[in-house]
Amino acid sequence: MGPQVMAPINDKVILSTSLPTISLLRLEAGDANESAALLQACSSHGFFYLNLQGADTLLGTWRSLLSVIADYFDQPVDHKMNDARESDNQGYEPAGTSVGARSDEISRREMLNRHAELSTSVDKQQQLFFDFMGNAHKITLTILSRLSDALSLEGSAGFETVHRHDRPSLSTLALFHYLKQDNGQVPGFGHGKHTDIGTLTFLLCEQWGLQVISPDTESWAFVEPRLNHAVINVGDSLRFISGCKLSSAVHRVVPVQEKQMEDRYSIAYFLRMENDVKYRDSANKIWSAQEWHDSKFNLFRDPVGLPNNAQMLTGVMESNEKLLEKAIPVTWF
């Protein structure tokens, strides 16, 4: 995953990894060299930093959203449960709903149609969410277009052609709150080991916690949060539709120290393919994008089924039994 470096955090030195950095401005300009660097990052790493220089509107919206989501998650749980939809892509989901996840979450798939039936403080800030989601969607489609260019995929073969606005998909915006653990609780994972389900993930977070596993060292290393940079990663569906030329890297979210002394917030836009797009996974099984999405989410919610299906959580990326044993923490949250 790039050079391993030692980084000081809160008087503690931790292992972090250096990811490639790609310029959004150069991608938007159609720079062929930057497109080639993007392809290399997605092929060998599956993760990269996206320099958001020039994306001032999106960064301003992100700053405003930080305050909104902190206020939202600070509300009593019974009040937030008014937004619960028993859905993987809509409404509020309390910590512990999914296996290996220790975070509050609120998702907003319905915003693509500018329709969001959510109560409480979030409902008053609809335009912020619309604006952020629109900008993140545009950026992820630009990335797909440049990947298509770099792979010489023309016309209907381009990755972007299976992400049309007028076709149903499960693209969604998710706001995450990883709870602090400063009162004697048993330390837990923010989110267990996994690959992402869809096409691309656009992530903004100012705090440490994201880790990736190096294919070279088979060890975990933190991804350093960088000012005015997003972290982008390839998801399972893009890996499969690329014929496994691109890599959906395994990652997780963990406390930096034994106890997480502060609340951690992140916002992610998950770009996903049209629901009826078909592809083969690396085990040669055919799925639609929605079938893969639903099956993987069902697995997250069913701890009894995990031991025999751990490979799906990591996108059929791992065959090493030693790695599979660590796919999800022993403790279910």
Overall pLDDT level: 77
From the spread of the alpha carbons, the general shape counts as globular
The largest pleated sheet is described as:
8 strands, mixed
Q: What is the fold named in CATH at topology level?
A: Jelly Rolls
Number of strands: 16
- Provide the structure class: alpha+beta
Notes on the structure:
- This is Fe2OG dioxygenase domain-containing protein.
- The protein starts with a strand and ends in a 9-residue tail after the last helix.
- With 333 residues, the protein is an alpha+beta fold.
- The chain has a single domain (4-277), classed as Jelly Rolls, CATH 2.60.120.330.
- It has an 8-stranded mixed sheet. Strands 1-2-11-10-13-8 form a 6-stranded mixed sheet, with no helix packed on it. A two-stranded antiparallel sheet has the order 15-16.
- A hairpin with a 2-residue loop joins strand 1 and strand 2.
- Helix 2 crosses helix 5 and helix 3 (56-73) crosses helix 5.
- The protein contains 9 helices and 16 strands.
- The model is unreliable at 99-103 and 319-333 (pLDDT under 50).
Task: Give a nutshell description of this structure.
The chain is of the alpha+beta class and 333 residues long. It has helices at residues 24-28, 32-44, 56-73, 77-80, 126-150, 236-241, 289-300, 310-313, 321-324; strands spanning 4-9, 12-17, 21-23, 47-51, 90-93, 103-108, 172-178, 191-194, 200-204, 210-213, 220-223, 229-234, 251-253, 264-271, 278-280, 286-288.
What's the topology here?
Blueprint: E1 4-9, E2 12-17, E3 21-23, H1 24-28, H2 32-44, E4 47-51, H3 56-73, H4 77-80, E5 90-93, E6 103-108, H5 126-150, E7 172-178, E8 191-194, E9 200-204, E10 210-213, E11 220-223, E12 229-234, H6 236-241, E13 251-253, E14 264-271, E15 278-280, E16 286-288, H7 289-300, H8 310-313, H9 321-324
Parallel strand pairs: 2-11, 3-4
Antiparallel strand pairs: 1-2, 4-12, 5-6, 6-7, 7-14, 8-13, 9-12, 9-14, 10-11, 10-13, 15-16
Keywords: Iron, Metal-binding, Oxidoreductase
Region (Disordered): 80-104
Protein name: Fe2OG dioxygenase domain-containing protein
